[in-house]
Amino acid sequence: MSERQHTIFLDGEEVPFRDGETVYEVSERHRREVPTLCYDPRLEAFGACRLCVVEVEGLRNPVASCTTKATAGMRVNTRTDVLEAHRKTLLELVASESRAAAEAPAGAVPGTVDPLRGYASQELATLASRYEVSGERFAGAKSGHSKGADDDNPFILRDYDLCISCYRCVRVCAEREGDYAISVANRGFHTQITTEFDSKLSDSSCTFCGQCVQTCPTGALADKKALRKVDVPGELQKTRTICPYCGVGCSVDIVTKGEEIVAVQPAMDGPANEGALCIKGQFAWDHVQHGDRLKTPFVRGEDGELRPASWDEALDRAAAGFRKAYAEHGAHAIYAIASGRAPHESAYTVQKFIRAGFGTNYIDNCSRA
Amino acid sequence: MSRTVATDAEILARWKEEPAPLLPLLHAFHDRDGFLSESSIRGVAETLRIPLADLYGTITFYHFFRTFPPGKAAPRVCDGPVCKTRGADALLAALEKDGATPMPCAGRCDEPVPVLIGDTQFVGAADGSLVERETPRPAPRPDGGEECVFAHVRDPARRGIDGYLATVGYAGLRRAFCEWTPERTLEEIDASGLAGRGGAGFPTGRKWRAVAEAAGGPKTIVCNADEGEPGCFKDRVLMDHDPHATLEGMAIAARATGATRGFIYLRYEYPHTQAILENAIAEAEAHGYLGADVLGSGQEFRVYVRRGAGAYICGEETSLLNSLEGKHPFPRNRPPFPVTHGFEDTPTAVNNVETLCSVGPIVARGADWYRGLGYRGEGHGDHAGTKLVSLSGDVQRPGNYEVPIGLPLGTLIHDWAGGPREGRTVQAVTMAGLSGGFLAGDALDVTLDEPSIRAHGSFLGAAGIMVFDDSRNMVEVAAQAMSFFAHESCGKCFPCRIGTQRLTERLTGAAGPADLDAWTAEVADIGRTMKATSACGLGMAAPLVAESLVRRFASQVAAHVGEAGERGGERA
Amino acid sequence: MSNPLRDMEKPEAIFCIGTNMTECHPVAATRLKRAVAKGARMIVADPRRIPLADYAELYLPIRIGSDVALLLAMGHVLVRDGLVDEDFVAARTKDFEAFRDHVKDFTPEWASGICQVPAADIEKAAHIYGSAGRAAIYYTLGITEHICGVDNVQSLCNLALVTGNLGREGAGINPMRGQNNIQGAGDCGAIPANFPGFQACDDPASVAKFSALYGRDIEPVRGITKVKALELAVEGEMKAMLICGENTVVSDPDRKHCEHALKSLDHLVVIDLFPTETTAMADVVLPATGWGETDGVYTNTERRVQRVRAAVPAQGEAKPDWWIISQLAKRLGLPGFEYQSARDVFDELCSVSPIYEGLDWDRIDAGAYHWPVPTKDHPGTPILHEDGFKNGRGLFRVIHYRDPAEVVDDEYPVWLTTGRRLEAYHTRTMTGRSSGIDYLLSEESLEVHPDNVAAWGLQDGGYARVTSRRGSVVMRVRADTTSPRGTVFCSFSFGDVPVNDLTGGGYDPVTFTAELKVCPVRVEAVAGA
């Protein structure tokens, strides 16, 4: 085996590649910004949108860079006038079939949708803007039929009027989630994403993990819960954290507007989940700002009922009870249970409280329930 | 006596362990019930461990399968380009009371209009009358020249194995298995210059050698009998009247490559052909030409017939393989190619019926003999071998002709087929069925070989040639052609999925600019991008129809855009 | 887990036992599904036909509580059929001979009588697991929530040791932790046997170390478990308790006993996010900030130490737990609680815990480290035991099958087992307050095999009274083939179906984990309800 590093020529620049890498992957690493709509780095390359076509010297037609492996000495052009013209035509064709793209108000970028629809929902609009796509060319029939009242599930909006048949949803459901809940019905321009027997998602093998929503490049699949927050004022902010449910430790972004949580989105680079979530992590977040939350301390009054109290009063009461128990019954009359749900800083201080305060190891956590 | 109807469990058990079981299973339920019920779909999904959504989606891909009654029993009437000119619409209307629906070109353009009811194909007339007839045999070659694949096809005895053996049938197989090494066979096929007769024209010897040299197995021979190109009906006559020739070619391919199993992927529109092929397979197995140990060579080779279900894209070899495997019939990304990763990822040679039928005679009589069959007319000395042409439309004697490669098109149309109808002239012909678009004017001087036709921006392909005389509106013909491509576009790649739709709308006038320059610019832009970026041949070829129309029939196009513009208020 | 989550896509053979992973750890399960799609062979052993079984080559519907018998017989086949990794056993293990001799008697036929699965399937399972180049075991509470939980785990260890499936990529023994930071709670020393970093409470050096660090002599003996503490409360010896973020009344077995225990205390302080059945019994309730409002650290099931961050302000006057406890400590005059931030607390933890010694607040920012991380230049430890076991050699254990604490009889003829459902989490303090979840799972129901529904005079959608030796609960009936005939299932998530009124027949003698997975009951139809 030769130790020599293999290279290709990317727009004339000699760059190295790794065995098995596609031309698209090499181009991405070298920041060529080759456009795509059907590509998701977690999925098998599919080759549907053809936006990523590049010219390879010696080949008559452009090739899809996502499905073409780099080979030593290959000479690739990623951005010629001819390629850019094809890309613009392709984007105008795509824009012409989508309701949002074709019906965008004059002057608006075709494909514009609210970013609360999902993680990747801005991809079409971003490319439409970059290529100055007209929403008027290639006018004709629209493809796809939205499921409005036909699917009343509370989580996933199936707004197929915006669907461009990139099949990222179908592929993520099969290749990443392994649920195979959705597939492709009909063919050609009449293609429609479907469940078994065209049923509601809740009657299919869908588990509402939301991965289809988050990979959709047009917002055709959208987060219904987030969309209820469209009118909340403020810029979208994302805060990276870890899901509060099971022990897998999926990375998520909490999406906020001002002081309000409006959505959760998966972190595509989360080491434990690589963009995956489940129904709980994806959709069960509104407990945080729920009206039931405890907002003040409470102490039990003379009447035996809990009543609101100041922190000072409550902490004094709490401390007094432990002081009394210790004084009257000793260290072995005091116990603490830490939480397996709270962060380390909670468990650490609780155990330190017992050990430093009473000199025992009378501490446990909820792992036995 | 009561008829026994197979239970679900019996049907599932019959096919569960067979190779490529999905299509026969679906057909078995479709045959039994007339449609695919939810419970049978669930049973198939569970038995074959196919996700239910995937199976449901795949079933909707095939236009033959229905999920509701009357389903299979309802007549299907061909509305291909030639049948459209022979009363297909009137026939459809006449049969509407029976639930008739149109089907794309069903491969009987020499004798329109085919109608499929259940498993019987009829020939229908505009008044609704139906007769059942055998596939027409080709007329004797007009110039008396020697033929390869048609040499014995007119012999009524040739369908049975005795008749086949009596006319030097299986001589090539015997030589390949008993006298020659696989390498010797490969060399002979290489030397013959035989190339894919399904349209792609890839050298057969090179394909087989790649399979022979590929690692892994079991290796597979697939006969592509999904003759779906409108205007093509040549494979049908070969299979119906000379079925052993296909089997012999497959077995020789198996010997040359080391394959142990073969599939014939047959379009559903030829139901009678399935019975003929299965009978021939049984005969060949009984005589030791197929089976566990072919002619005592120690090599196994079994052939299975699998019936398609109505999808033009399944004539594309990787879609065909996905369909055989029970997957959604989208074309695959290549590489890898089928020669290394074909059926179930094993090395696979996919060959057309005509190609395979040429193999037996080549091995029996030699490469030099075959090469010598090419056209030897003035200034055309280089052509090797023959090609079947399906000629139909506005000519006196439509039908299949085995022509020497390089024969002038004019000779075929005027001398062999009698020229246009009385009082008419040839306005245009299609090439490669529909995929090559139109030739007209000076371009009608081409000779029937790829270099000559490609020089005019078209290609010979599977050699379906439809003739349109000066009474025809070429914009209408083009619109019908494009709507066929739109109907058959698989929906995987964007340029073809949307492009065929948009071109159809522009050719029918349903949508598109009213201004001729804008109209022409849109059609040209779509066509250019489809040709350059589509993922398979369908999307690359489809724009040729529009492009050649605009180039050769500018005044008809201008009139069409003008009329459509006047109707503008009605547009979507 | 001995191995990282990404290894779940690498085994050739996968053995899942007592883990309803697609519902309880859905994202981890996606990796197993991908492994299977790529050709891995999967065995699933579970009393219920859980969704994971659909992806398996071999599904073993074992009787509840019969795991040890199954695992002994698999060990028998491995030894009998020469599937022992002799090199690994010789180089890295101890007491193999005792194990080898022990399993001789435990044939698949013997186990078949207990587990109620065909002997041939047990053989097949052993062959799939034992002949793979890389085989991994995954388990959850279906293994541990038994009186023989420790035996179950050690039986699994025996299989991994005998086949050399430890300390390598794509192999290992992998318990899936059920709560976001249950691993972290243990890491932090919130357990009676260990100081932070699993330094033993009965190890003199560790006792001296923490006594010095915390400025107080700590007794050199292990503490008692929560179960024992609740018992002592009932007996009047335990007087004051601090409960942080746990709805003990609902989540623990034998609810009546638990309520009795908490009522018996003189002083109960509960820190929580929501009012719960447990806060209702407290003398003082302190409102904590929760997820999305608190900076801090979690450690996940693969020992990956990850940052959590506040995205929104606290609700009302709620405060982080560390602040609350520090305030409490200060009022008791304890030194060492002068923290200004979560960072201060975490950095102190790192400084006292050898497995975190190489970490600090800034280093864990990207979640790149699996503990142990002993030094600042250490890359972390995705795979445990690669270079050897902590105590030298992997020890084979001789395990005997035992019946569950309670077995079915004429009075309680039906096995009840409990678990979780995909859409609900624990006692629904969070999922129950998230809109939309009700659409998919609006109430708890008793999953009963359709044949039993008919035989027991129940109605699908009607109600049944479920009675154990400790209590009785009425719930809706749902006919479902997921549970086998004679076994019923429900989750513990719904407060109006307090299934833990029924459970609690016994505890593992080592860990005091309750036998929540096995509870003989009687099921009777109830009209109306």
3D structure, described in words:
The complex is a heterotrimer of chains A (369), B (572) and C (529). With 369 residues, chain A is α+β, with helices and mostly antiparallel strands. Chain A has four domains: 73 residues, Roll (Ubiquitin-like (UB roll)); 131 residues, 2-Layer Sandwich (Alpha-Beta Plaits), CATH 3.30.70; 54 residues, N-terminal domain of TfIIb; 71 residues, no CATH class. In chain A, 25% of the residues lie in helices and 18% in strands. Chain A is built from ten helices and 16 strands. Chain A is elongated. Chain B is α/β, with parallel strands linked by helices. In chain B, 43% of the residues lie in helices and 12% in strands. Chain B is globular and about 75 Å long. Chain B has five domains: 54 residues, no CATH class; 59 residues, no CATH class; 215 residues, Rossmann fold (3-Layer(aba) Sandwich); 82 residues, Roll (Ubiquitin-like (UB roll)), CATH 3.10.20.600; 95 residues, Up-down Bundle (de novo design (two linked rop proteins)), CATH 1.20.1440. Chain B has 25 helices and 14 strands. With 529 residues, chain C is an alpha/beta fold. Chain C folds into three domains: 172 residues, Dimethylsulfoxide Reductase, domain 2, CATH 3.40.228; 175 residues, Rossmann fold, CATH 3.40.50; 113 residues, Barwin-like endoglucanases (Beta Barrel), CATH 2.40.40.20. Chain C is 30% helix and 17% strand. Chain C has a six-stranded mixed β-sheet with strand order 17-19-18-21-16-20. Chain C is globular. The two termini of chain C are 45 Å apart. Classes of the chains: A alpha+beta (369), B alpha/beta (572), C alpha/beta (529). At the A-B interface, helix 2 and strand 7 of A face helix 4, helix 20, helix 21 and helix 22 of B. Strand 13 of chain A pairs antiparallel with strand 11 of chain C, so a sheet runs across the interface.
